[in-house]
Amino acid sequence: MSSSKVALVTGANKGIGFAVVRSLCKEYSGDVYLTARDVGRGTAAVESLKKEGLTALFHQLDITDPRSVHTARDFFTEQYGGLDVLVNNAGIAFKGRIVNVSSEMGSVSLSRCSPELQARFRSDDITEEELVGLMERFVRDAQEGVHAERGWPSTAYGVSKTGLTTLTRILARNLLKERPGDEILCNACCPGWVRTDMAGPNATKSPDEGAVTPVYLALLPAGAKEPHGQFVSEKKVQPW
């Protein structure tokens, strides 16, 4: 088993994920793994970094495929004993960092939900099961064309980010209860409006600029107690 620390970035063959890997290669004192669904694109991204004088490692990972997830889990458990840093752009070790790349659209969508839905998403005791139920309810309501009258906004992307940020808060709360001495920090963040395939060429930030806040959270120093369970934008905690 390797004694090196290890960071893993999902969906990292391009865009914000690739920029996060680039920054971690420069600043992180451990192994950095770039993951992607497509092996060819992932290895090409690693080769691109090598031409910049940076060393990243590749592991195939499709977060929508349970078999792929289990294979990656087993690999990192066997080779490193777990993860020290997980940047989820799409189980963690002692003193680890979990960064879920969300969006301010999640906050905007939440503000457009009915008061009843807002209260449920913001609840300090919402469970994972309750959150899954809410997300499934949105899908059903949207499919039936009744989402607006049942208190939902008209943006699936925004609601998905509401769910991701809420899940982050749940995970953070559970970590405090179940592993209080392990110093694991779990946060969600917004990279900003970044020039990616989805946002297009007119977005205001480059991928490297969009990576600043995710990398900041991934590299929070040992002994840090906060932020934890927060939504962070421009390296500042935002209200939820």
From TrEMBL:
Molecular function terms, GO-annotated: carbonyl reductase (NADPH) activity
Entry superkingdom: Eukaryota
Keyword presence, Membrane: no
InterPro entries on file: CBR1-like, NAD(P)-bd_dom_sf, SDR_fam
Pfam families for this protein: adh_short (PF00106), adh_short_C2 (PF13561)
UniProt keyword list: NADP, Oxidoreductase
SUPFAM superfamilies in the cross-refs: NAD(P)-binding Rossmann-fold domains
UniProt keyword Membrane present: no
EC id: 1.1.1.184
Family label: Belongs to the short-chain dehydrogenases/reductases (SDR) family.
PANTHER family: CARBONYL REDUCTASE (NADPH) (PTHR43963:SF4), CARBONYL REDUCTASE 1-RELATED (PTHR43963)
This protein's name: carbonyl reductase (NADPH)
Species the sequence originates in: Carassius auratus
